[in-house]
Amino acid sequence: MMEPKPCQVVCRIVLSQQEAKDFKEKIDDEYRVNMILDNLPMVIPIKRVDKEAPPFYQQGVHVGVKGQHAGSKDWSYFIHNHLSFLVKYNKDANTGLARIVAFEVKPFSVKHERGDWSGDAICLMTCSPRQPIRNSGWPQQIEANKEIIFTYDVDFEESDIKWESRWNTYLDTPDDHWFYIVNSLLTVLFLSVVVAMIMLRTLYRDISMYNQLESQEEAQEESGWKLLHADVLRPPVNADLLCVYVGTGVQFFGMLLVTLLIAILGLLSPSNHGGFITTMLLLWVFMGLFAGYSTGRLYKMFSGSEWKKVAIKTALMFPGAVFIIFFALNILLWVEKSSRAVPFTTMFALVFLWLGISLPLIFIGSFLGFNKPAIDDPVRTNKTPRSIPEQPWYMNPAISILLGGILPFSAVFVELFYVLTTIWTHQFYYMFGIVFLVFVILVMTCAEITIVLCYFQLCNEDYRWWWRSYLTSGSSALYFFVYATFYFFTRLQITKAVSCIVYFGYMFVVSYAFFVLTGTIGFYACLWFTRLIYSSVKID
To answer: InterPro entries of this UniProt entry (predicted)?
Structure first.
């Protein structure tokens, strides 16, 4: 600490034919070298267009670069064999102690020339305390049976960055990011006001008109959503499966909400690597109690009796599908000997959390929810289902469901771009305040668009709204996956088959989870809406 080290030789190696080939493959695949100093990741500072603004940090150093010599069509590969480290520190005015606040690096490719030998030490003519390396004027090419010498510099620089705020530069948010978020927020708020005005005026008129009908003949001549009062709460087809998906969505909603609140309060530090994923997994496990409770309550409302089977499906269906995909992808990573492969002990711990803690909690929640008194319906359901008239083309289930997913997706796709860019380009993402704001926007849009389309469906005397309400907002997951595919082909340069499979495997899991989350939000919004409007009219 505080001792500059110019031109330090690490080692010298002679690459074999296979080692040279491996290095070239790593450069083609854009592998990066990552280091940590005092829990700060090594970064390359990149100047912004506004020179007065703090630099943008890129995490890690590429193994090397490739290029073409003038007049040659063949590609040459050059290795970054010299790293120039800059450690920034902040001195305490009272104690005089220094604390590290930044860990920056500049990589160079230098073809070193050896001077005299002194035992094991190597004297270099291309690098010395008086002649520091400032550029890659004569780069080190990767060739078999040729020697490569690795060197580094360490320099220290005092900084006015406080130790408490040393992560701020790492987590700096681009200015245009806020512009897009505010733009999305204003658009959604405008749509919310318009939808609310239309729905309130229309519903107020409908309810007033229905309550003023005096004779039986007038009631028979009337058409609209009131005529469905004896069928609107009729249990749907595959009611147990709907209960399972709704319970899983409640589990997701609770996990995301609590995780974001914890992150906003500053209880998740970026220095705690993996803390965010660990928190989400633990919350997912313990939210199984709420998943089971909501599943049991809904199943009881549908007059079901086999609550134990539904509880088992809730505990196994979604987590089981995700685990199978994750395990298959992990096997591919094991075969490729990737450092991203999850160890067997960690896999065992995940299975224990799933079957040993989450499953019993779901059972307990289902028992408590099923044994509570059933929710009273505002209207009675006839034994004989009402015939459904022919529907207009725009109320076709496929059309209305696909249209319903556009608005929720549009509320998140800007943030989705930043998240994908962060994950797949080795950048930092810790903007949980923005994510929470986007999460609120998502909940609002899912609820609003589903209620509007549900209202149109009921006005056309179609009472089969249960599954459609779930699929309407849940269809945004389809646009989510399509956008992830578009991002893959336009923003990433992934060519290896295993990497492609891993990308689409993870994106499918995330899209599936997004479907469950948004579908549940839309379902509960419609459930609240239908019970509200049918409890507001007089039924003879």
So the answer is: EMP70
Kindly report, residue by residue over 382-419, the tens digit of the pLDDT.
888 888 888 888 888 899 999 999 988 988 888 888 88
More confident residue, 385 or 502: 502
How far apart, in Å, do the first and last CA atoms of the chain sit? 85
Say if CB 77 and CB 64 are below 8 A apart: yes
Over 80: is that where the pLDDT of 188 sits? no
Q: How far apart are CA 127 and CA 111, in angstroms?
A: 10
Question: Minimal CA–CA distance to 251: which of 206, 227, 283, 221?
Answer: 283
Are 141 and 81 contacting, i.e. CB atoms less than 8 angstroms apart? no
Q: Are 185 and 35 in contact (CB under 8 A)?
A: no
User: Is 9 in a helix, a strand, or coil?
Assistant: strand
Reference 111, options 78, 144, 89, 160; nearest CA is: 78
pLDDT in tens, 25-68: 999 888 889 999 998 999 998 887 766 766 778 888 999 999 88
Q: Which long-range contacts (CB under 8 A, 24 or more apart) does 35-41 make?
A: 35/103, 35/105, 36/103, 37/87, 37/100, 37/103, 38/100, 38/103, 39/271, 40/100, 40/101, 40/102, 40/103, 40/166, 40/170, 40/271, 41/103, 41/170
Of the candidates 302, 307, 303, 292, the one whose C-alpha atom is nearest the C-alpha of residue 246 is 292
Mean pLDDT of the chain: 85
Whole-model pTM: value is 0.84
3-state secondary structure 304-315: CCCHHHHHHHHH
Residue 122 has pLDDT above 90, yes or no: no
Nearest to 134 by CA among 160, 155, 159, 148: 155
- Give CA 151 to chain center in angstroms: 39
